[in-house]
Amino acid sequence: MPTELAITLDPPSTDAELLQSCARLGEALASLAGHVRAWTETLAPLRPAPAALDRLHQAADAIAEAASATARAADAFEDEFGDARHIAARGLAITGHGPHAQSPRPQEGGHPVPAIYTTARQYQCPHGCKGPYGKVTAIVPDGTGLPVTCTECGQRLTPTGRAPLAGSWEIQPCGNTLSCRRDPGKCLSCKGTRQRVVCTTCQASGCDGVHNFCLACDGSRTVDCPRCEGERTVPADGEAEPVPCPDCEGRGRVTCPACRGTGKPPR
């Protein structure tokens, strides 16, 4: 199960770039946690020592916790700087191109409200090129005509011919990573368009709108402890120093109540 994960974090020049970088880092960490967990499951036939498997599961949980910590860092930044929140929390309108499409409405100051597209199609390289994560594909919302190209051979991607996808996507500016600035055609997020298609449900780029994992915990099976908010410690009466949180036993994470620890969509 060969897997390669890469992320470039350049010094942000704006509040919005900082928040976008946090989002991408969180995506990469959450993806890595899933890969580590899946890889650990493949080791069962080898019958390794239970302690070894436990440590690997703990490693996956720690990476998932790091992903949550990244999200908390973005939240803390927004809480302290109101302007950043204004940039990140943009108004959304259901527009796009479909039976329920609406015309974009002007936002305060005359800026257009970002459109949400409810149907899209998957595109692929006509030569079947493979990138770091498998076949080169892209999600293109219907009616946008984004000229996505293959990051390997540069050819224009073509529709797979499958039925339209149903979901919720918006288009965000790309170009904030070093690789995209050097050569947008090699950017895994925008595929040469400088515009990345992001699922508004899970905030991941390239998502096909199908979520076969619990969105509350991103499939990690655990969430931040509500009592200590993931900090692992809580204030204690009469004590100068905080003590380990009794609810999570100082781990900072508890079983996800939405999926009950399965990592699958709640039924």
Topology, pairings included?
Elements: H1 15-41, H2 50-80, H3 82-88, E1 93-94, E2 115-124, E3 130-131, E4 134-135, E5 137-141, E6 158-159, E7 165-173, H4 178-182, E8 195-199, E9 222-224, E10 233-234, E11 243-244, E12 253-255
Parallel strand pairs: 1-2
Antiparallel strand pairs: 2-5, 2-6, 2-7, 3-4, 7-8, 9-12, 10-11
Helix pairs in contact: 1-2, 2-3
Note the main attributes of this structure.
267 residues; alpha+beta; 3 domains; six-stranded mixed β-sheet; two-stranded antiparallel sheet; 26% helix
Give the % helix: 25-40%
Q: What is the total domain count?
A: 3
Spatial extent as radius of gyration: 21 Å
Instruction: Give the topology string: H per helix, E per strand.
Output: HHHEEEEEEEHEEEEE
Distance between the termini: 30 Å
Q: Segments where pLDDT lies below 50 for 5+ residues?
A: 82-106
Q: What does the average pLDDT come to?
A: 80
Shape: globular
Please give the largest β-sheet. 6 strands, mixed
Beta-strand segment tally: 12
Number of helical stretches of at least 4 residues: 4
Structural commentary:
The protein folds into 3 domains: about 15-85; about 90-200, no CATH class; about 210-265, no CATH class. The protein has 4 helices and 12 strands; from the N terminus they run H-H-H-E-E-E-E-E-E-E-H-E-E-E-E-E. The protein has helices at about 15-40, 50-80, 80-90, 180, and strands at about 95, 115-125, 130, 135, 135-140, 160, 165-175, 195-200, 220-225, 235, 245, 255. Helix 1 runs antiparallel to helix 2 and helix 2 (about 50-80) packs across helix 3 (about 80-90). The longest helix has about 30 residues, at about 50-80.
